[in-house]
Amino acid sequence: MSRLKVSSPNNNNVNIPREQNKRKVSSSLLYSPPPPTARSVSKSKFVTYANVVPADQFSKFDESVTLTTHATHDFLQHTPALCKRWRGPLSLAVYAPGPDYAVVLDKISFLRRCSEPCVRANVTWHIVSDSDDPPVKPGKTAAYVLAQWNKSCSSDVMTATFVNFRRVHKKVYPVNVLRNLARMHAKTRHLMASDIELYPSQDIIPRFLRLVQRRKDRSPVKEVYALQPFEVRADQDAPLIKRELVRMLGNGTAVFFHQKFCAACHMVPEWKQWLSYLPDDDTLDIFTTETDAKNNSLWEPIYIGTNAEPLYPEEMSWEGKRDKFTQNGWEDHTNYVASKL
Questions:
Q1: Which segments carry the region annotation Disordered (predicted)?
Q2: Three-state SS across 244-279?
Q3: Reported pTM
C-alpha cells in the first residue's frame, strides 16, 4: 500500500504580529505586466504572471527546500525577516488587481535594492491579477521598472499605507490560487507551503535534508513532514529553537496558532508529548506517525512535502476560512497517511 506520512519537526514556525507607523499616500504608479502565463485559473477569474521577478540565485533540485507563500502588498514587509530565517529559495505569489500591481512593483524594487541581500538572491516573485481588473498599463514592463527604480533607500515605500484597491473594492482574496502558483514554480524537490507571517526555526533546511538523507534507504512511502505553528506576542522576538519556544509557551508570550479560533485545525498529533521532547538543536527527527488523518478531520497541516501532493482547491477563498480544509481529504483518494517529526 502506498502511504503518505505527515511529520512535524522539533522546531517550528511562529507567527509574529508586526505593527508599523504608517501614513496615508496614494499610488500614481502605472506599469504594464508581462504576458500572462498560459495557465488561466479558477474559470478565468484570475490571470497569473509567473516569475515576474526571478531570484538572482537558484538551488539544485535536491540541495535545498523552497518556501512557497503568498501576500498582498501590505504584508510584504515580512519578506526580509522570512528570507533571513529561511536561508533558501522562496517562491512568493502576490495578489495585485488593478493599480495594486504598480505598488507591488515599487515594493519589490525597494526590497531587492534596500533590504536583506537574501531577498534579491533567493526570492522569486509571481503576481495574480483579476481578469476584470487587470494591471493598469501604459507600457512599462516589470524589468524596466526595476532597472529604472531610483528612489532612496531611506524612502517610506514599505512603511507608507498605499491605497489598497483590493480592500476598497471588497475583492475576495484568492489564497489558494496564490498558493498553487507559488508551489508550481518551486524548483526544488521539497517545498513548504506556508503563510508570510509564519517564520521558521533556524537552519531548518540543512536539518531537514540531513533527515531525508538518513532515511533514503527506507521503503518508498508518500511522506510529508508537518510543523506545529505558534503565535508570538507582538513585543517578543520569534524563538530560533524549540527550547526557546517551550519557555515562551510557559510564560504566556507564545500560544498555539489560532488557539482561540480553531486549535484543532493546527494541532499536530500527540502535541503534549511533543512539547516535552527536546532533541539537540541541530537535529530533526520523526517524533510519531499518524496513520489516519481522519482522526482529526479539522486538521490543516503546514508541512514540508513535494508537488506530488494535491494542489489546494482554488474555489475556496481566504474570506471563507477553512481554505486548506478539502486538501485534508487526500487519504480518501490517494492512500495517504500522516506522521509527525
A1: 1-41
A2: HHHHHHHHCCEEECCHHHHHHHCCCCCHHHHHCCCC
A3: 0.83
